[in-house]
Design a protein that fits this description.
The protein has 10 helices and 7 strands.
Length: 240
């Protein structure tokens, strides 16, 4: 059986992780305007191609920062053919889902996704890691979802974009905010407890994420600000 063609539009850290995981199972195409990213693709044995060529893939995975998503979708739209599956991997879901629905033609299927892991958390394997799927249009997403669950042991969670953003504001948005705050307080002292070490290990997984990731999970998610205000109120002396 012929392997499907997977287009990675954007070849940053997550695009590279995806290519390494799926190269044995798909024909991988890469498109990225950055020469640095294109060189990284070549080092992985992949040949970067132009947008019209990459747009012919069976599955297109958008691995671009949220601010670049609208422009990328508009450029892709004229080249898409019926039956393709278009998905994103943004850390926030409501706004990207709306962009895909508004900017892409009705003849393609749409799936908003959020892998709740990255290269660091997947370093020890993918089994048990969560992948959130928000189906937007069509049913072609079901077969890739079953493949990812069976082959990589991922936990597939179905959600709506709004439900995802509400829950991610708590589990991801606050985690990034706390990790950044602890980092900015300065180096941790030598006097440490086991509980602090565990917190420090958790924060280390996200505190040095790329700025666009931090912005996506904290500023682009509208449900983070109310939680941040609630947390600040709980930490104030007046609440004790």
């Amino acid at each position: 059986m012929q392997h499907p063609t997977l287009a990675l539009i954007g070849f940053g850290a997550f695009g590279r992780l995806t290519a390494r995981l799926l190269a044995p199972h798909c024909r991988i195409l890469v498109c990225d305007p950055s020469e640095t990213a294109c060189e990284a693709a070549r080092q992985e044995g992949l040949t970067p191609v132009a947008l019209p060529e990459v747009a012919a893939a069976d599955i297109l995975l958008l691995c671009v920062p949220v601010p670049q998503l609208g422009q990328t979708l508009s450029a892709l739209a004229p080249h898409l053919r019926p039956g393709q599956l278009i998905a994103d991997v943004a850390s926030v879901k409501s706004a990207p889902a709306a962009l895909m629905q508004n900017l892409l033609p009705d003849h393609v299927d749409l799936l908003a996704t959020h892998p709740m892991f990255g290269p660091q958390s997947a370093a020890g394997g993918t089994r048990g890691l969560q992948l959130v799927l928000c189906p937007l249009r069509g049913t072609t997403w079901r077969r890739p979802a079953a493949f990812l669950r069976k082959t990589f042991g991922l936990r597939i969670l179905l959600s709506t974009p709004d439900q995802h953003d509400r829950e991610a504001a708590y589990t991801q948005g606050l985690t990034h905010l706390l990790a950044r705050a602890m980092r900015d307080l300065g180096p941790a002292p030598k006097l440490r407890t086991k509980s602090f070490d565990l917190l420090d290990q958790a924060f280390a997984m996200v505190r040095d994420d790329a700025p666009e990731v931090f912005d996506a999970v904290t500023r682009d998610n509208p449900h983070v600000a109310p939680l941040q205000a609630q947390l600040a109120a709980l930490l104030s002396p007046a609440s004790r």
